[in-house]
Amino acid sequence: MADTKKLENRRRFLKIATLGMGGAVTALMSVPLLRFFLHPVGRRMVSTPEAPIDVAGVADIVAGAAPVRLPIIASGVRDAWNRLEDVAVGSCWLQKDEAGTVKAFSAVCPHLGCSVDFSQASNDFRCPCHNSAFAKDGTKKDDGPAKRGLDPLEVSIVDGRIRVRYQRFRNDIAEREPV
Ligand code: FES
Description:
By secondary structure, this protein is α+β, with helices and mostly antiparallel strands. It is built from one helix and eleven strands.
């Protein structure tokens, strides 16, 4: 009788141990599967380089002339699956004053993100989408719905070359909030 009870206990123990081990193995194996199916949920899809990007030589920009629009080409951009080389991540308006100071503004309109143009006729920046206007120094003019001026980009000069740190900012708010 005692033997039967012992046998029963052992069977029950083995059953529970087997179920426990099976559950643990299944849980362990499902981690990579879940990661595979959920990728890239919750991750940044595209990462643009944070380092300054070479856009032009200082001598290429004429002092006191109208701003020039230049593409910002990153040597390495990573999205969820790939790393891409030489990708145009955006563009900027560059200008050099008579004293030789170089300034850069993002070409993205701070209203809803259209591309701003420079008007030689009115000597200011204009957005074709909803007619926001910005002075040559980037400040917002009264025309149009933009809530702030053009977004300045950080400029550094290294060995006679202009480098711009490209950044995007949240649209349609008065504050400048990087995204
Ligand atoms: S997107 Fe430029 S004014 Fe609306």
